[in-house]
Amino acid sequence: MPQVTALVREPTPSFVQALSTHPEKGSLDFDRALEQHRQYTRALAEAGASLVFLDPLEDCPDGPFVEDTAVIFPNRAAMCPMKEKSRQGEAGSVENEVKKHRSLEILPKSATLDGGDVLDTGEILFVGLSRRTNREAVEALSRLAGKPAVPVRVLRGLHLKSSVSFLGSNLLLIDPAAVETSRLKDFEWIEVDETERYAANCLVLGSTVLMAKGYPGLARKIRDHGFDLMELEMSEFEKADGGITCLSLIIPHREPNP
Ligand code: CIR
Description:
alpha/beta
């Protein structure tokens, strides 16, 4: 697969206070979260990613959800102006790492953005209009990425990518009840059944797909498209409204100049 660096951050005991709308958030278990995170990072390494472990942040319960803190494009990157105050302390350490790989641009003050709302399909960016991300961010991202950015209303769940994953080529994995689908009709869809909707958030690394464990119907559909699957226990992160992609910020390595 193409070489990538994955920024990750282990949970701390404060993880049990992560932001969440999940009915079972009261039973969040730190030890289990840490173990699940370790399995996640092992899977990333097995899939070929180079890992960078950011320092754990006891003052930031949502620190493991690194994806939300920045957006990465081939030639530049931006830190996300995150709406939730309790998450803003996560940025500094991510910025120090991202600067090693990309030149950083600043998004306008009027924009609010979580990385979980940015679905890059190559030619077009789809940007979730969610509780966290606004229209100003959509326009700013289009300028930054130098390509069209299409807003997509998020109807259910936290972010656009909670319910839609891009598997490459022209293929989306999608829970169509959770987002406004009118702008996504030109793609081929793997549709996620209502009962398996948590698993709609998947991470693709080359021909490997990392997905949550316990969703056999969706697992079969993904395998039928020729992917290798790694299925991971995600119960504690699900209780904190987070999915597979949320736990890492993927930075593709740049092609060396000829
Ligand atoms: C939050 O509410 O911000 C965290 N508890 C979950 C963030 C999940 N991130 C993601 O979907 N990219």
